[in-house]
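Many introductory courses stop at the sequence. We go one step further.
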Amino acid sequence: MASNVLIAGSTGYIGRLLAARLARDGEPPRCMARNPGGAQDLAALGCEVVAGDVLRAETLAEPMKGVEVAYYLVHSMGRGAADGDFKQRDRQGAENFARAAAEAGVGRIIYLGGLSEGGSPHLESRHETAGVLASTGVPVTYFRAAAVIGAGSESFLTVYYLVRRLPVMLTPRWTGTRTQPIGIADVVAYLAAAAETEGTRGRTIEIGGPDVTTYGGMMDALARAMGRRPPVKLGVPALTPYLSSLWIGLVTPVDSGVARPLIEGLSVETVVGDPSGMELFEIEPTPMAEAMAEAMREVESQPPR
């Protein structure tokens, strides 16, 4: 029996976890992937895997058939982003998806973006995507998350490899930026519960964990999770995002196409300003230290990057 839930971006980090969560809950979703062969693990869980690419509008009609809830977990940063054109690809993909959803009679789109809409091309693009998805009249539930603590989150991996490899580090201004990090398990829980939670249809929902800190504070918390002393930090506030991204590229395995827009995003505060959306859910937020320890175990169980 075909599912009435579609996940676009099902082979990404969060999409894959969400698909597995829904399958475990007894409702395997339809999983759209540019390369269905890369989603065989989801097929093994009972998910219906279909071919589709948000940048190719002609491929979307078939995956949308019979869909009531469509998750949009696609973004272009790091996929050919070296040409600096990820914003255009984000817009085009969202336009194609929104149009196809309206034509298919989809009841709701659920989208995950970031907390800040200004100061970073990456975050601005994510915020703009929400507006594009809503442009054809399909109600959008727009989750806006702070920094995600999880083994597939590039912002977490940046912090992880810096702490792991540098007992003493140069720290640019962005390490003092405030954030309200949220564990990946909580992000997936919010997404999974959204369609069945009253009051979320067509609403913007800000989500974060219980702790407000800085990226430097995240480094200290991660060091403690590793059983290490927090790294000694030597402030270099004049280090630009460009120079900082080169430094990140030398020290960590974070993709060079991701580094600069990622650093620009880390320079923008991401703290929940309106917690009322989170109050609609019966989700107990995971403390930062616990989420850090779990993410660290997940990273260290994987092959080295």
